[in-house]
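thought: fold this chain, then report.
action: predict
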Amino acid sequence: MLSIFVTITIKPEFRERFIEASFGDATGSVKNEPGCFRFDVHEDESKPNIFYLYEVYTDQAAFEAHTKTPHYLQWRSTVHDWFDGEATVVRMNTVFPSEGGWKKQKPHLLNW
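observation:
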């Protein structure tokens, strides 16, 4: 399983709108993408304009499919000018849960 950790700093005046837009991308990802097993949005506790996205995909192909979905394209076009600098991305392989564990958790993401 492929996971990514993205750090984004947002211009202060766009903070609330960024949260709203990111909610749409995150929910669209877990609800509409069979290869997306996690999409968390976090804000830094001491620096409220820094956000962290944690995403888990089956593989590179599932991540690439994510970047072509309507909810991602809408999110990207909406928030890109709100970035304060470039986003940083760390790519990782998941260790725990196992692939089977991720797949078992997926239905719970859809029932909130």
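thought: worth noting. The two ends are 24 Å apart (CA to CA).
final: tokens above.
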